Amino acid sequence: MKKRISLFAAACLLISTVSIPAASANQVPANSIKGSLVITGGSLGSSNADVYQSFIKLAGGEKQAKIGIVPAASGKLKSSNDFKADLAKYGVKPENVEILPLSNHDFSDTDFDESMWKDNVNKKEWTDRVKNLSAIWFVGGDQLRITETLTDKKGKNSKVLDAIWTMYKEGGVVGGTSAGAAIMSDVMITGGDSLGGLRGEFTEKDEPQNKEYEKVFIKKGLGFFKYGIIDQHFDERARLGRLAAAAIKYEKRKDLYNSYGIDEDTALIVHNKERKAEIVGRGGVTVVDTSKAKLAGKKVHPVNNVSISFLSPGDEINLQTKEFTINPDKDATRGYEYYQFKPLDATGVLTPYGRLKPYLAYSLTDNSSADSVKSYLYDSKGKGYALTFSKTKSSNGYWGYMDGQKDDYSITNVRLDAVPVSVGFRKDKKAFKNYESSNFKVPDKAARGEILGNLVIAGGALGSSNEAVYKRFINFAGGNSKAKIGIIPAASGTLSSSNAFKNDLIKYGVKEDQIEILPISTHDFKGTAEDESKWKDNRNKEETAEAIKELNAVWFVGGDQTNITKALLNADQSESKALSAIWEIYKKGAVLGGTSAGAAIMSDVMIAGGGSLDTLSKGFTDTYNGMDQQEGGPGYLEKGLGFFQNGIIDQHFDNKSRLGRLIATAYEKGDRRQLSYGIDEDTAMVVNNKDQTVEVIGRAGLTVVDLSKAERQKGQFKNISISALSAGDIVDMKQKTFKISSHKDSTTGYEYGDFKAAPHTGVLTPHGTLKNYLSYNLVDNGGEKKVKSYAFNQDTGVELIFRKTADTEGYWGYKDGGKDDYSVTNVTLDINPVSVRMKY
């Protein structure tokens, strides 16, 4: 029976019968350990050179390293064999890497019965073998399998575990990923989720979890990490609630130790001799400080006055003083905030920057207009918690660029408070009574005839290392030797993004004299001696047009899309000579590309501003006010350049959660016989005009919206078809069908999950992006036929119902080091206006 949540739910932590795990049997002072740890949050990509090379270096280097792999956590030997192959790829001799025969269960991909290996943990042969190693690696899977293999039923160490400790104390390195990270601390979090943690429900038993949330399952770990509690898969599975609650309950020395949540494809590297740790990889590490958290009481929830920090690669932690050293390439944002807008609460899949770290970075620490922001976490009955994240005197943000033009943030000392709340929703046809339809007049389509050129349209934040996108653009331009590329800088406020893109093209083999930054702009750029606002007349100069006609590729950089259209359209909205020249080369076979703003201009109807919830509920506006309109507010439309003839495009789609505004725009101003497309960051849709196909390339995905059967009445939408694609997938624009990458298998009839899914409610929802939420909770889950999300502001909002139909398909495969790679086709979406009631 479910416990009721009330204002006294905090007491759950006090009355829980779960005992705190005993301290490690290895009573080893941290300062006596000469070895290091490489603790990886899961889904370690084979291409993540920083993590692999760090582990190998600590193990003695490519030539000297002697590494043992412990396969016990997994159900197969495949992950161990894959890790061994990856080590060889990074230079370690195969004969110096050994998969140790340590397991308490059989593996499904071999003929041998590996459960017979259980006795090896106390055999001298394997104890001596481990003592001669310089490194141990624990693969992922089930962390209980590791502890049950290496200790007896009373928790006593096996001889092999003692040998691992000896190696570690004398200077060896111990590493692991996923389950291999969970075992690193004395207190081992074995299961559970954030809602279970906030409810204060803990268990030491491996029991079935049939609820929409899971109790936090605590067992004794192996204790290699001496400075707090470790959690893993942290960002993707939104585990802040469970780690904070576990730290408050189980960490005895809160004054000395923080707790650490490690993201996927990321490592916390611990140097015990120096008592410091560094962050390496592609994600981040969340640091949870519960030293000032108030004890549970009748009026105070235990997750109260918790300090959270988010560290990124290049940042360091002093494990003795708990101080942070932020990557010196970043600048502090406090007092120099870039953003000034009022952020909406984080309430579901329509929340801009809907994952926790981006939400706090953009909406709080780098936003001078907000001192606190709020999110929610609740079950399908609306019982849950309101989460308030606040700036304190010691809060700060740190910003820099990473890998091209991607924002890279670190955040320190944001306060988290959780308060029990009951949220109720009621369908309300009058909720959007002030909705304003768009007055934008869709331009008549010009008869362009046959177009031989192609498009490479990137969703923003294109990484310099995104080889697939750069190479496709260059290949369409004739290859490195024949490419003649013009860069249009008009969208940006500086020339830095144009120069950066030029340098990236050179890095990929294009000669500098084959690339030109075209003098097209209506405004001055910061940081240059020239006044580029004088370029505004260049758009109608023959000299400019003739220079364009010599090109076979044009790229539009990001910034403000209205600056591009101002620079290439005349005051009467007719084509300038420069734009006509671009069209001429495009029709003859040139490739056009762009990122962010350079993607928005590609369709006839250009989405220039607005947020998802505001556009669905308030409609559209005829005015544009820059940043506020970029980050939210009603939708704002302008005439685009129309290079993409097959629908409407939106960009920054995953990070800014723009599904709502794309649906509203396409329904009002699009041709509903055509598909509409939302492109994620660091991803491109490649348009082949001859074949009438779109291919997805890059690191994230493409959302495809089909409104051909959709209906709308008083703000209520029915029968919207949503598909979420990833790299290698292809769309047939004429037939409106999908060809999914051959490395994926259909999940229909073979669903991995079988559980009841809680609604998507905010930044602590697991698998928080739209595609992943639909993948894990709906199409690869036999336990659900529909899932919900809510987006609301104060007392009005929308209910999103995503439904399986006979046409719905899910597809799953692996990518780069064991990461789940999903595609979803033809999920039906209904949108209902709702009124919201909240009771604290």
UniProtKB/TrEMBL annotation:
Reaction(s) catalysed (UniProt annotation): [L-4-(L-arginin-2-N-yl)aspartate](n) + H2O = [L-4-(L-arginin-2-N-yl)aspartate](n-1) + L-4-(L-arginin-2-N-yl)aspartate
Protease keyword on record: yes
Residues spanning the signal sequence: 1-24
GO biological process terms, semicolon-separated: proteolysis
Catalytic class of the enzyme: hydrolase
InterPro entries: Class_I_gatase-like, Peptidase_S51, Peptidase_S51_cyanophycinase
Entry EC number(s): 3.4.15.6
Gene Ontology molecular function terms on file: carboxypeptidase activity; peptidyl-dipeptidase activity; serine-type peptidase activity
Keywords attached to this entry: Carboxypeptidase, Hydrolase, Protease, Serine protease, Signal
Similarity remark: Belongs to the peptidase S51 family.
Function (record text): Exopeptidase that catalyzes the hydrolytic cleavage of multi-L-arginyl-poly-L-aspartic acid (cyanophycin; a water-insoluble reserve polymer) into aspartate-arginine dipeptides.
Name of the molecule in the record: Cyanophycinase
Originating organism: Metabacillus mangrovi
